[in-house]
Amino acid sequence: MPTGPRDVGSTLSTGDTVYTRIKPDWPEDNRMLQNPRDITINRDGYIFVAEAGANQVTVFNKSGKVIEFEDAFGNKNFNELANIQTYPDHNGIVQPIGVAIDARMNLFIVDSSNTVYVWNQYINNVGVDSVATGFILADTSNNGQTITVSADDYWRSGYSNYVIQQPIWSANSDSIESVMKPRMFFTTQLPEMLRDNYGSAPEVSRFNAVASYEPQNILAPARDGSIYLTDASFYSRIIRVDYRKYRLVKLGTGNTFWLYRGRFRSIVAVSGLGAGTVNDPTSVAFGYFEQDPKLYFSQTGENFEAHKISLSTGDFDLAQSADMMQLGRLQDVQDITADDAGHMFVTNTANNVIEEFNPDGKFLRYVATSELVVDTTWYDTTYVNGSQNITRVDTSVVRHIADVLNTPKSVAVSDGVVYIADTGNHRIVRYKLSTDVDINLGQPQY
Fold first, then answer.
1. CA-to-CA distance for 280 and 269, rounded, in angstroms?
2. Cα gap 114→202, rounded to integer Å
3. Residue 279 burial (CB count, 10 A)
4. Which of 46, 297, 405, 445 could form a disulfide with 284 if both were Cys (CB 3.0 to 4.6 A apart)?
């Protein structure tokens, strides 16, 4: 296994666009990541890696430094992402295999169980002063008559005809600690989080990947938020879970901030063998392209390994003649993501390469291969007046050699940088477009 990048990084080109390897690989301290499975990137530049073999989510800043507790900017409590206790017995330790982060800095974690966990980076950065343990509510349909309910009753019932007149605050340390630590966000073990159409055996669900809905306007979103989950059980499907207000907290800044739990909303893609259906899902991603929300997912089941569907229409959003849909082209696909331009990046895991496709599914280029120029000779045969003429042509061809990655299981793209979980080599490798001269690879900016 290579201990670090070569002096000259590999490059990949199509036309005048070139990807260049960013050195060094991560981590820089010669520590090997233990089974890195997924990558998500926050808007402030922090990179979260699901390190299943270490029972933790490992956090890097943009310079590649591992943040174990607190960074130079005062952001802290990242150590809470190690040894997360399982729900509901708290006797086990979560082995993260999927992560996603939303615009409110909610970090979602899945571990192939029927539970989703959440940790909020923002409230850990600024601190929590107190937690609302209950509310005085005013009935908007009954002359403002008030009732007092607990915070648990509020999130379970919603009280749609009531408005919060006054929170009941508590500075109890246990209450504060319970919201700052990673906690259960959604589980099929609580019936109040489900609907009748979920299915007859919710306890068998296994969530192995998660994607977060990111509203275009965070100040006035169409809904509080949603996550999308791959259910890799016999259901073999993708579901949508909506946010539901769970706890109101008063921050160290004096502002108030809602935390959420989830409730099952709908089945987004069902089990099947055709385009847009699910067969042993491995990843899911959400993105906007041309103002139309898209859902991307990968799978290891037979037929089509990478999919894109429109959430506006529910339709499959690629032609079956697209390069990305060629049978046998992609093998053991573990992840798919898209950048802001709608370009899709797919881990062709069995072949140890990342492939990039345009929004229509046309192949653009490989990521993380080396170019090898091979001299070759071919012969051109022509016939003139019955005579055979043979012309020798000496030329060269460029071949892409998959000599960088070993079983890549995740790919993420942010600000033109491609981050790859090189799982078999226990590291994160990065590539960037040489045309992106303004990419900031330094410390996060605030």
1. 12
2. 8
3. 18
4. 297
- State how far the Cα of 40 lies from the Cα of 212, in Å rounded to an integer: 10
Task: Please check whether residue 379 lies inside any domain of the structure.
Answer: no
In a domain, 208, yes or no: yes
CA-nearest of 114, 112, 109 to 84 is: 109
| Residue 382 parent element (H or E) | strand 370-384
Using CA atoms, how far apart are residues 330 and 408, in angstroms rounded to an integer? 13
DSSP code string of 44-86: TS-EEEEEGGGTEEEEE-TT--B-SS--TTS---GGGGBSPBP
Those residues with Cβ within 8 angstroms of residue 435's Cβ, 6 or more apart along the chain or in another chain: 16, 17, 18
Give the single-character DSSP code of 32.
Answer: P
> What element of type H or E holds 381?
strand 370-384
pTM of the model: 0.89
Q: Range of 215's domain?
A: 11-373+399-433
Helix (H, G, I), strand (E, B) or coil at 7: coil
Residue 385 placed within a domain: no
Q: Could you tell me if residue 387 is inside a domain?
A: no
CB 214 within 8 A of CB 289: no
Model confidence pLDDT, tens digit, residues 402-437? 899 999 999 999 999 999 999 999 999 999 976 654
Exposure class string for 170-185: b at 16+ Cβ within 10 A, else e: eeeeebbeebbebbbb
Task: Output the pLDDT for position 443.
Answer: 38
Residue 436: how many other CB atoms lie within 10 Å: 11
61: CATH? 2.120.10.30
Given a contact cutoff of 8 angstroms between Cβ atoms, the answer to whether 40 and 48 are in contact is: yes
pLDDT tens digits, 99-150:
999 999 999 999 999 999 999 999 999 999 999 999 999 998 888 899 999 9
Instruction: Single out the residue of 334, 284, 274, 282 nearest to residue 304, CA to CA.
Output: 274
User: How far apart are alpha carbons 431 and 434 in whole angstroms?
Assistant: 9
Note whether 84 and 78 are within 8 A (CB): no
Residue corresponding to tokens 């648990």: 152
Residue from 241, 187, 223, 228 nearest 104 by CA = 223
